[in-house]
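retry 2 of 3: previous attempt timed out while embedding glutathione. Reduced batch size to 1 and resubmitted. Inputs unchanged:
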Amino acid sequence: MAIKLFGAPPNRTHRVLWMLEEGGLEYELIRLHTVEEIAASEELARHNPNRKVPTLVDDDVAVWDSMAINLYLAQRYELLLPTEKAGFAHAVQWSLFAQADLDGHLLAAAKAGAGVEEDRAEDVVRRAMESLGRPLSALERILEERSHLVGSEFSVADLNVASVLVVARPVGVDLAPYPHLGAWLRGCLRRPAARDVFARALEG
Ligand SMILES: N[C@@H](CCC(=O)N[C@@H](CS)C(=O)NCC(=O)O)C(=O)O
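retry 2 succeeded.
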């Protein structure tokens, strides 16, 4: 088997699992669930000196960071790859946007809900909502006019952004003010590969 993936939900590995399942690609999952398991894995450290998951190894290629891995898989296997002019650049743009403008705020809300943050959970969620206002409004404006983020079909851009936003509702972020975004997200998460991965993630 050529592809090895280090990680396992509940960490960010679900983003890459979703991509691999979309392509029906064969892979071996090296299960590392906790910070302790991640820190202890010398095999992971050989491929990723930053010792984080998800990390993907495909024969002689190692790639880490969930968004970069999915963009690699899109290019390498022509999987959910936007084909229009500047399509790949726009997929990179949306992936960086998801990491920079969405991920940190959602993580803060998730940690607060889990009691990891010292602040009161509702204050943290309120602050996250304030910070998320602009990026969520940007997505809403775009999805008012188009069905997908890049081109006219579901692509790695949709997958990367939706795989970050999947935690929004569970951590208490209200998406009601963003109806087009909500409908797009539901559509992404109804895909068989997504349903399968998230059902398995809930099983642990
Ligand atoms: N931006 C990276 C974040 C990777 C990351 O922080 N992974 C966490 C698990 S979700 C990790 O490996 N933590 C171990 C540690 O911080 O020591 C990505 O999207 O892959």
